[in-house]
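User: what does the whole thing look like in 3D?
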Amino acid sequence: MDLTSLNNSLRLITPEIILSIFLVIVVVVDLILKSNKKVIPYLAVLGFAVTGIVVISSLDSSGFAFITASTSSKQFGMFAHDPLGGFFKLLILSVSIFIVLFTITSSEIKQIHLRSGEFYALMYGMVLGMMVLVSAVDLILIYVALELLSLSSYVLAGFTKLRDRNSEAALKYMIYGVVSSGLMLFGISIVYGLTGTTNLYLINSLLQGPQINILTLLFAVLLIMAGVGFKISAVPFHFWTPDVYEGAPITITAYLSVASKAAGFALLIRVIQIGFVSFVGSDGFWNLIPVFDWKALLVLLSVLTMTLGNLSALWQNNLKRMLAYSSIAHAGYLILALATLSTQGVVAVLIYFIFYALMNLGAFYIVMIIADRTGSEDIDDYDGLGYTSSFLGVSLIILLVSLVGLPPTAGFIGKLYLFIAVLDAEMYVVAVIAVLNTVVSLYYYLRVLKHMYLTKASDSTQSVRASGGEKIILLLLVVPTLLFGIYFQPIVDFTKSCITVLGV
Amino acid sequence: MDLYDIIFYLFALLTLVSAYFVVTNKNIVHSAFFLLFTLFGIAGLYVLLGADFLAVVQIMVYVGGILILLLFGVMITNKITNVSIKTGTIHIIPAAIVIGLFAGALASIMVKTQWQTESAKIPFTTSYALGKSLITEYVLIFEILGILLLIALIGAASIARREEKE
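Assistant: Here's the predicted 3D structure for the full assembly of 670 residues, as structure tokens:
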């Protein structure tokens, strides 16, 4: 590798470099400041914002960084800078900014303010892992980025150490995570043994050759899916999700449910589209190399994931746990959109993710505000809250209706595009299952509203009043949820411009 | 079966048997000592693969560094040495079925697959080539591993620290 190509590569990973610099700045500022660490979260927001601006400015460019592999005609790197990666980076950075804003008002995080420098440093580690993950096209880089992401999230899940549940969450998350990443590494080693390369593009061209052992590849792909499935908490790799989501600080729960899931989906899209698609037809459907039936696997995973997620959510009385199961169910819908194996499917995934991020973050934030005041996430403590704190009540109605997917909210538009993609692919049976699932989800979302508006408050219920800052943050999430439900064309157009994957 | 194969199976056997004792032993000090043989066996496998640098690093870092630290940690905190670890087995039948299937699939794959192979060469020292590719082709991975280690340090310190009372 000569100096020009190194320069070229460094230019393409500018966002990641800026993030690393801010990571170091956060650590150093934390060391300099003795006790008053109020400035660190704002520094963290600044870092994410600067990185976001750089990502936006390079959104329509593309190219390979760190060229390591080449065929006779083309050269491939281990890091692909392309619009799809740019989209997910923007999503992850915006979610991160919201999460930092959440932590500023969270009482859980205020109690550990002396260690807040470490908290934000770990968050930067997580974001860096995700940013690399969504652009990685080399199996080794994918694994290292996944480890960076996981390692930071294990610590963050148990960061507050206020209750035993925190440590339990961290330990459970770590044990499941280590096992699944070990399985994934084993799968990667089998793929390497089969093809002799770790680059997804080269793997693609080798898979088109005649001498690939299909059974071995099946085994390897299933093992790799264990790692990916863990990140997107797809059934049967979901066992950690409810316990970790319930035990982790609520800001981190919201973060895990949106950002790290987005990174997992970006990885899944990339692995399928680069590794296994021989060509994209003119109608937008992908023609797979006939070595592995992705459609069957994804449909199976998606049906299991959404059904189990929705049915388990019915019995939950803890709101955090209910939202955990609901996020499993939403992952099921997203896998279904991907299972269409078409460009429309990817568009649906991206649109759904923008709206899912808004409504899920908002719902978790309201649960956080209420838990900060009443010290409880139990559904019985929400009795009559709709009357005592009307602002939170109305916001929660909008967000939950959007999570169900009813008009006139953004969630409806997300589900609409999703079902159109599924019907286009002529997958009628699964579409019906997904609709039935949506009906089931109506019950447990509306149950919260029933408690807030139709149940009389007991004497012990405290009234909850959101502060001005909290109201502004919440409005930033609720207003777009309503607005995009009516005026969604710009989002759709933006998403359609972002689905190009480099070299496919 | 030539000499090479015999040495390979010896090292593999050493690794597996000592690993079994690491997991099943109830005394944590004994487990740590068995870990010594596991790590040493893996270093032997590296040598057989011609990865001389990796083998030396394995012995220096794992056997020489991490294991000694582990033993010191165990011995200094004398409470741990007396604790007998719970090593029970639950759900033995489903576990046996799953592991049996997994092992069967794995074994058939290992035997039947046509792996990409490379003819054995006279081993050269690998440290030069390894160092070169780490700072040229794989520099991105190298740097990200650096950040990974920083995050691991911050995380470990943060977990280990006792919460200060205010």
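In plain terms: Residues 126-166 of chain B form one domain. The helical segments of chain B are 3-24, 28-48, 52-76, 78-82, 92-112, 127-135, 139-160.
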